[in-house]
Specification:
The complex is a heterotrimer, with two copies of chain A (about 190 residues) and one copy of chain B (about 260 residues). With about 190 residues, chain A is α+β, with helices and mostly antiparallel strands. Chain A folds into two domains: about 80 residues, Winged helix-like DNA-binding domain superfamily/Winged helix DNA-binding domain (Arc Repressor Mutant, subunit A), CATH 1.10.10.10; about 90 residues, Winged helix-like DNA-binding domain superfamily/Winged helix DNA-binding domain (Arc Repressor Mutant, subunit A, Orthogonal Bundle), CATH 1.10.10.10. Chain A has nine helices and five strands. Chain A has a three-stranded antiparallel beta sheet with strand order 3-5-4. Chain A has a two-stranded antiparallel sheet with strand order 1-2. In chain A, strand 4 and strand 5 form a beta hairpin. Chain A is globular. Chain A starts with 11 loop residues before the first helix and ends with a helix. By secondary structure, chain B is mostly helical. Chain B has two domains: about 130 residues, no CATH class; about 60 residues, Orthogonal Bundle (Arc Repressor Mutant, subunit A), CATH 1.10.10.580. Chain B is about 55% helix and about 10% strand. In chain B, the strands form two sheets. Chain B has a three-stranded antiparallel beta sheet with strand order 4-6-5. Chain B has a two-stranded antiparallel sheet with strand order 1-2. The longest helix of chain B has 27 residues. The chains are: A alpha+beta (about 190), B mainly alpha (about 260). Chains in contact: A-B, A-C, B-C. Strand 3 of chain B pairs antiparallel with strand 3 of chain C, so a sheet runs across the interface.
Chain lengths: ~190, ~260, ~190
């Protein structure tokens, strides 16, 4: 099965090119780990190659960009061309989340794993339909049960959340203290 | 691109607010507040009050005025707004009570507004965070990923999570239920068959409780038939009806 | 509606970049004619820009190539990397399932242990190939025979199932009661 053993060592440029091809065919962001596995190269080589590829994308005056999102690498269009892309695809901007859904999402993002009663406590209002919307949009997902009376379901954000909000991972979210400091001013 | 949300808003232009038409008339502008805390926060800012020293009487009055405007709000949400109204009234009344002269004057007296202020601050924290999320998603909407390519052909497959399992299972069960009902309806019983069935039952025993009998029936149709059959048996003098107490069970007894 | 009229004339490099973005987001090869329409530029300008873009792709040592196919332009991976691309496509996470397999999995997850005839009764359709897929993906496993006529095999979910759906144990599967608060919205 494993014919890889007899292959020639690859040059860094070749690795960069293969990585570009793989990131392109993938239908979701590709982690450096997976790239290392498929190419059977060590992690440092892959990371150096990805960095080189990203530099190339930055320096070419290109319509595309390579970015890190949801724990992996993805090629996407540059934001500045959104008017033309949208005109071409004949799409309108996505329907935005309602205020209630956004607030609920913020609570879930920062408090996860969190239960429905805990969300109610913070928002002061039933959040059932907002939670339903977020589940339907796959922005949140189940994160086990809380070991308390009734073992309520806990919710947390999903990979789709990272994708739709352009985050590498949750640690990229600004810290909640930043918003705490803003509260009560005015 | 799927469009799910029915209403969208824009943080910069569509923040809900109240327009004061005259002294007693206020009008709600743009959508609904996301909850009672949202409304309260708005009113406090409107009054340019300090959140750490809320003019509770004035804010409560404003809040109650608004509550009257949202009578039409769906009931589950209205309840949460009313709970807050009760809380405000309670705080207001506590503030009106003369402060007891404390035994130890240095002792800090708990401000009745304290808990509310804490909740408002926590809520506002997340509200600010939600604005950040809104901004991020707006930026993200300007970025596009590649179109479909050949190797995507297995995209009929879905990436699933546990909620999909539950939803799908519920859908299957719902479909199943319909099938069962259809099957029973096809095997509909006639009045003659029901009479026969009842007579057979009375061959084996002297008495039958009506409720028990009706409970054995699996569809509305059968229950109605059984009831008509009982009346028919009474009419023909085959059984007598006896109710031992008002609202008590009715006992069918075979006529001698 | 048409705010385009007052736009600044674009530089050739900008046109090249936009064209790259449009070809990238398209589901099908994009014709020069369509590009000219969307960009509101004349055909010669577009053709010159496409040629420039193609030159760039040829001269970069890239994993991607721009090719003319079926009367339009398309970005694809370079043929020489097909081994790696194929290997990569095979490694994609196998949490993806057809709807039939997902339905069968749902029935097994919530009704386990359950036999093939019981699944047939609930789903109302034959599920043999779906069961085979699920066995292949190790999402379900045989759980002994049912002591009834024909002693049919019973199936249940596997450890791999828990892993892929992010559950600690089966009690963490969401139940209908979890959605009672969300009721009305589901």
């Amino acid at each position: 099965m494993d014919l890889e053993t007899e292959r020639q060592p690859r040059s860094i440029n070749e690795i960069v090119a293969i990585i570009e091809a793989l990131i392109f065919v993938a239908d979701e962001p590709v982690s450096a780990k997976l790239l290392a596995e498929v190419l059977d190269e060590d992690r440092e080589t892959i990371e150096a190659a990805v960095e080189q590829l990203q530099n190339e994308y930055q320096h070419r005056e290109s319509g595309l960009t390579l970015r890190e999102i949801a724990g992996g690498w993805q090629i996407s269009t540059r934001a500045e061309f959104h008017t033309e892309v949208r005109k071409f695809l004949k799409t309108r901007p996505n329907a935005k989340l309602s205020l209630a859904a956004l607030e609920t999402l913020a609570v879930i993002a920062y408090k996860q794993p969190v239960t429905v009663p805990e969300i109610l406590e913070i928002r002061g209002v039933q959040s059932a339909s907002a939670i339903k919307t977020l589940l339907d949009k796959r922005l949140i997902t189940a994160k086990g049960r809380k070991e308390t009376v009734g073992r309520p379901m806990q919710y947390g954000t999903s990979k789709e959340f990272l994708l739709q909000f352009g985050l590498k991972d949750l640690s990229e979210l600004p810290s909640i203290e930043d918003f705490e400091d803003l509260a009560g001013s005015i | 691109m799927e469009q799910i949300e029915q209403f969208s808003f824009d943080f910069q232009t569509e923040i809900p607010h109240i327009i004061r038409e005259s002294r007693d008339e206020i009008r709600l502008q743009m959508g609904e507040f996301a909850g009672p805390l949202d409304l309260l926060l708005y009113l406090i800012k409107q009054e340019q009050a300090n959140i750490f020293d809320i003019p509770i009487a004035r804010i409560t009055d404003e809040y109650l005025k608004y509550i009257r405007l949202i009578k039409s709000l769906d009931t589950s949400l209205a309840a949460d707004f009313l709970v807050m109204a009760a809380t405000l009234i309670e705080i207001k009344s506590k503030m009106l009570l003369p402060r007891e002269i404390s035994e130890a004057p240095d002792e800090e007296i708990e401000d009745p507004r304290r808990e509310l202020v804490d909740r408002l601050l926590e809520y506002e924290t997340y509200k600010n965070a939600s604005q950040m999320l809104w901004t991020r998603s707006t930026v993200e909407q300007a970025i596009f990923t590649r179109g479909k390519i050949e190797s995507d052909e297995n995209n009929t497959e879905v990436n699933s999570n546990v909620f999909d399992l539950l939803k799908i299972f519920q859908k299957i069960l719902a479909k199943h239920k319909e099938d069962v009902i259809l099957k029973i309806e096809r095997e509909e019983m006639s009045l003659a068959e029901m009479l026969k069935k009842l007579k057979a039952m009375f061959r084996e025993r002297e008495q039958l409780h009506l409720l028990e009998l009706l409970r054995e029936m699996s569809t509305r149709q059968e229950i109605i038939l059984a009831f008509i059959a009982v009346l028919e048996l009474v009419r023909m003098g085959n059984v007598t009806l006896l109710q031992q107490s008002i609202f008590g069970d009715v006992v069918l007894t075979k006529s001698k």
